[in-house]
């Protein structure tokens, strides 16, 4: 399509310039507001890094930091996908159960002698299918995604328990697929490399492609997007396929990392993922998403969990801290940053 | 100097279940002119517009565009013909900036990636072409704009494409005096550029200030389509409220009979 050539009509008086409503200060505030959360979470992350580097002996070692990155890789991968879902004002609570189901099934089918490549493809397809079901109910049937994915959470966890009867299933360490969780390339753990790739693709998709724009548009004003002729239901469904796929990949990484598929894997995983996304400044009400923020949010959570353990704090505190962070982040999103002129719906 | 209408609807019927909203409606829109579409609440203005825009399928009737009979099955079909609608509720996304909104759903891209530079330039040229000087930055979020500025962006979005017909659904409804004048000025300029403009309005001052023709709907029927210069203020009000005014309008006087 081409634009019409601009032709100024002669003889008409120019429009009297309307008083610019936004003052310079208001605009500056709006600009800060746009990036304030990302900046703030970056600052928090740096402060935490400094704090743990000085207080925990082994924190600032290459070995520990690489280990930390590997620990958070599954969280980061799913959080990237979750950023799309939350930007459309949706939510996917079923990712933790999907991690458990896909990890367990991977171990089971490998034990049955499936080819690892085939098993990997099948597991990823299963994740996408789970996401498709979530998306179909939420987007095409307009059932609140909170309920749809909560039901799916129960179904998936139950299926995982039924399939494994509650036992862990070992994965043969000689299969190549184990390298996904345990391998290293040039000293960097494979999950970290995968997470970086997923993050880069996610960032480009959200900020530089029409799909990313539709995701933000859908969360901001879905009706307006629909009237421009975009199939908003398809967009709404696609984001859940992304989280399903990402959760299946995370399930594979976790199972191969531990050489075992467990139906108890990924409990509380959804909370961790959502916390990372919200901490990064993505609005739970949709229309606003920050991939960089999500990455920083996931890193922050990883640093806190890792640092507390190195400080010999009881690991049970980690959950308490995580929940508190989620609450504070939502509070900050809706009450504090709004003062900088950033719009919250 | 009567030209051929660019958009010509004949015998349009539209029902929602048992409720017949449009009865045998004819509606013509001419290039270079502003056609005011008036009518009371529930007269069928919005429904007619949505039928034109392909949001609602018509039950029966003929849709001519530039003399050709066409089928409009959805918003994309209407957009492909060059029919753009600016909705009453300002169909803009608050969290996106001006350029993003103007290209929403029809982004320019190079490969898979959005071509921001081209889109920004085209947006700037369109706004310049409309002599819009009220927005300071094209990268401002729409949420930070005033009502008049938003309406301007919504209208600019509609003319960005090779549009031939632009339909404005109550563009001045939520605006103050100065902003209304500004938007009406913009409406006039669109017509002067050769576009066919349909202006839906409840405000008689706006209608008489800017329109060339008036089409009055009464209870789902087209009461009259007349030149604005040939009718008076009170005649239009009678057409809206009673469906007739002297020789003009529906002669049986009751649009509800079928």
TrEMBL record, chain A:
The chain crosses the membrane at residues 36-56, 68-87, 117-137, 185-206, 235-255, 291-310, 316-338. It is found in: Cell membrane. CDD domains: TM_PBP1_transp_AraH_like. Its main location: membrane. It holds the Pfam family BPD_transp_2. The keyword Transport applies. It is a multi-pass membrane protein. This is ABC transporter permease. The lineage of its organism: Bacteria, Bacillati, Actinomycetota, Actinomycetes, Streptosporangiales.
């Amino acid at each position: 399509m081409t634009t019409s050539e601009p032709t100024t009509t002669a003889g008409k008086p120019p429009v009297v310039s309307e008083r610019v409503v936004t003052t310079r200060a208001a605009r500056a505030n709006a600009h800060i507001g746009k990036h304030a959360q990302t900046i703030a979470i970056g600052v928090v992350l740096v402060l935490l890094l400094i704090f743990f580097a000085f207080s925990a002996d082994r924190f600032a070692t290459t070995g520990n930091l690489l280990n930390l990155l590997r620990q958070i890789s599954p969280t980061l991968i799913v959080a990237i996908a979750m950023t799309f879902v939350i930007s459309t004002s949706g939510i996917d609570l079923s990712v933790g159960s999907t991690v458990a189901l896909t990890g367990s099934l991977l171990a089971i089918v490998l034990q049955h002698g499936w080819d690892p490549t085939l098993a990997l493809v099948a597991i990823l397809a299963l994740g996408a299918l789970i996401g498709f079901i979530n998306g179909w109910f939420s987007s095409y049937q307009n059932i609140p995604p909170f309920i749809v994915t909560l039901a799916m959470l129960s179904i998936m966890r139950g299926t995982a328990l039924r399939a494994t009867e509650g036992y862990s299933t070992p994965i043969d360490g000689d299969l190549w697929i184990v390298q996904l969780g345990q391998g290293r390339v040039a000293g960097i753990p494979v999950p970290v490399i995968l997470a970086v790739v997923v993050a880069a693709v996610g960032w480009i998709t959200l900020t530089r492609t029409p799909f990313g724009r539709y995701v933000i548009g859908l969360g901001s004003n879905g009706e307006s997007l629909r009237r421009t002729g975009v199939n908003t239901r398809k967009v709404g469904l696609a984001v859940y396929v992304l989280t399903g796929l990402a959760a299946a990949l995370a399930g594979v990484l976790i199972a191969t990392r531990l050489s075992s598929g467990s139906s108890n894997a990924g409990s509380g995983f959804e909370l961790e993922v959502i916390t990372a996304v919200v901490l990064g400044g993505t609005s739970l009400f949709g229309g606003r998403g920050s991939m960089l923020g999500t990455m920083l949010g996931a890193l922050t959570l990883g640093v806190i969990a890792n640092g507390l353990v190195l400080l010999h704090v009881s690991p049970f505190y980690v959950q308490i801290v995580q929940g508190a962070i989620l609450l504070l982040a939502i509070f900050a999103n809706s009450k504090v940053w709004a003062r900088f002129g950033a719009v919250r719906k | 100097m009567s030209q051929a209408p660019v958009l010509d609807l004949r015998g349009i019927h539209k029902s929602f279940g048992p409720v017949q909203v449009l009865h045998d409606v004819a509606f013509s829109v001419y290039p270079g002119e502003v056609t005011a579409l008036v009518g009371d609440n529930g007269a069928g203005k919005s429904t007619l517009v949505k039928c034109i825009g392909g949001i609602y399928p018509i039950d029966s009737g003929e849709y001519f565009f530039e003399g050709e009979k066409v089928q409009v099955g959805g918003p994309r079909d209407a957009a492909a013909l060059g029919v753009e609608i600016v909705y009453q509720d300002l169909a803009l996304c608050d969290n996106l900036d001006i350029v993003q909104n103007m290209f929403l759903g029809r982004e320019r891209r190079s490969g898979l990636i959005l071509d921001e530079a081209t889109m920004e330039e085209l947006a700037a040229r369109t706004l310049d072409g409309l002599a819009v000087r009220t927005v300071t930055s094209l990268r401002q979020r729409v949420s930070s704009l005033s009502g008049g500025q938003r309406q301007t962006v919504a209208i600019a979005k509609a003319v960005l494409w090779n549009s031939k017909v632009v339909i404005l659904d109550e563009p001045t409804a939520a605006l103050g005096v100065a902003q209304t004048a500004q938007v009406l000025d913009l409406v006039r300029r669109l017509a002067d550029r050769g576009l066919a403009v349909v202006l839906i309005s409840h405000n008689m001052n706006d209608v008489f200030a800017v329109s060339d023709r008036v089409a009055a709907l009464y209870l789902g029927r087209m009461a009259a389509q007349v030149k604005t210069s040939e009718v008076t203020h009170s005649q239009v009000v009678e057409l809206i409220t009673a469906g007739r005014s002297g020789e003009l309008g529906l002669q049986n006087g009751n649009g509800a009979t079928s």
